[in-house]
């Protein structure tokens, strides 16, 4: 406790850092490392993930293996530690769902694959790239990103001996943990278009997650499209319903109901239903690839449509008759005696 430590040009007493007794030097060093090296590490690797849980050399494989198993086996629920790791890697969307679209590392890996379609890209080279500045990724972190891209149907992995691992096989190959990556030598582009924006769109319009997840497996995309078309039909019927009810209100009760205010809400229903109806085969999914901002606009529009639908159903089922009665009473009361 009486020694001194230098941090850059600053000297501090070890006693400033030690607040308890340690059983050995390694335990003490692990306690001191953040204070001693954080500033240096953050300046050298500014794009390194910021984890909310402790990720150390002795637990990184276990933590990431558990997160991988949760991601690969869960249709709907991501657990706390898994979500924390995905969040640190920028692999969650604004609603907390798994998504690769926000990850810079995932995007750069995809750019590499798209730049060499049909070619095998060295996995060790990818790992080496992100181990350096400005990322400082441990190999396990980069392996996890590649595993996530494979699960999402965006890339395929190739193991020693020539075995190809696609989204269909990834769960079985990595069921015991991320250590299986030691046999993976190459990656290659799996899909001819980005599947993540399509998954995000399906979720945004209310297709259930189980159906949206089928997009990750090329052989199941036909089933996913059936769910998409069914949901689109419902949205189209809801759009026709609310438009018809607005017209009825405008004709019958424009002096009581704020029809102009409702019309402004209707103008915000920016749902490209004509594009949606063009999707009949997996190849057609390329017709509904949108930027994140557009997907958010569609999601907000569907949410507003649901609210308008509920409003009109409640009004015409419960309020209209009472209002008609009240208007008749007012007419009677206002008739001069």
Identify low-pLDDT runs. Answer: none
Total strands: 6
Overall mean pLDDT stands at 86
For the termini, the CA-CA separation is 100 Å
Label this structure with key terms.
single chain, 337 residues, alpha+beta, 54% helix, elongated
Give me the secondary-structure topology.
Elements: E1 4-7, E2 10-13, H1 25-44, H2 60-73, H3 80-88, H4 104-115, E3 121-122, H5 123-131, H6 139-151, E4 155-159, E5 164-165, H7 170-173, E6 184-189, H8 196-204, H9 209-213, H10 221-252, H11 259-267, H12 273-276, H13 292-334
Antiparallel strand pairs: 1-2, 3-6, 4-5, 4-6
Helix pairs in contact: 2-3, 2-6, 8-13, 10-11, 10-13
Task: Explain this structure.
The chain is of the alpha+beta class and 337 residues long. 54% of the residues lie in helices and 7% in strands. The chain is built from 13 helices and six strands. It has helices spanning 25-44, 60-73, 80-88, 104-115, 123-131, 139-151, 170-173, 196-204, 209-213, 221-252, 259-267, 273-276, 292-334; strands at 4-7, 10-13, 121-122, 155-159, 164-165, 184-189. Strands 3-6-4-5 form a four-stranded antiparallel β-sheet. The chain has a two-stranded antiparallel ribbon with strand order 1-2. Strand 4 (155-159) and strand 5 (164-165) form a beta hairpin. It is elongated and about 80 Å long. It starts with a strand and ends with a helix. The model has no long low-confidence stretch (mean pLDDT 86).
């Amino acid at each position: 406790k009486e020694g001194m430590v230098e941090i850059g040009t600053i000297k501090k007493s070890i006693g400033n850092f030690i607040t308890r007794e340690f059983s050995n030097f390694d335990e003490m060093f692990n306690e001191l490392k953040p204070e001693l090296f954080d500033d240096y590490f953050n300046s050298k690797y500014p794009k390194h993930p910021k984890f909310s849980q402790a990720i150390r050399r002795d637990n990184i494989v276990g933590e990431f293996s558990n997160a991988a198993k949760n991601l690969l086996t869960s249709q709907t629920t991501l657990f706390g530690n898994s979500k924390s790791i995905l969040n640190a890697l920028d692999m969650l969307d604004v609603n907390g769902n798994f998504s690769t679209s926000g990850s810079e590392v995932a995007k750069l890996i995809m750019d590499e694959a798209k730049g060499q379609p049909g070619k095998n890209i060295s996995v060790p080279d990818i790992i080496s790239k992100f181990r350096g500045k400005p990322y400082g990724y441990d190999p396990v972190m980069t392996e996890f990103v590649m595993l996530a891209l494979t699960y999402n149907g965006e890339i395929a992995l190739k193991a020693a001996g020539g075995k190809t691992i696609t989204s269909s096989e990834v769960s079985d190959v990595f069921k015991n943990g991320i250590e299986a990556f030691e046999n993976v030598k190459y990656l290659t582009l799996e899909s001819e278009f980005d599947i993540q924006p399509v998954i995000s769109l399906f979720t945004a319009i209310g297709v259930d997650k189980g159906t949206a997840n089928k997009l990750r497996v090329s052989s199941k995309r036909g089933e996913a499209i059936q769910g998409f078309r069914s949901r689109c039909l419902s949205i189209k019927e809801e759009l026709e319903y609310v438009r018809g009810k607005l017209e009825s209100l405008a004709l019958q009760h424009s002096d009581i109901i704020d029809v102009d205010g409702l019309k402004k809400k209707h103008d915000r229903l920016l749902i490209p239903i004509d594009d949606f109806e063009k999707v009949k085969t997996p190849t057609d999914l390329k017709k509904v690839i949108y930027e994140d901002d557009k997907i958010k606009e569609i999601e907000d529009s569907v949410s507003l449509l649901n609210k308008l639908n509920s409003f009109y159903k409640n009004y015409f089922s419960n309020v209209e008759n009472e209002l008609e009665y009240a208007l008749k009473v007012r007419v009677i009361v206002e008739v001069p005696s």
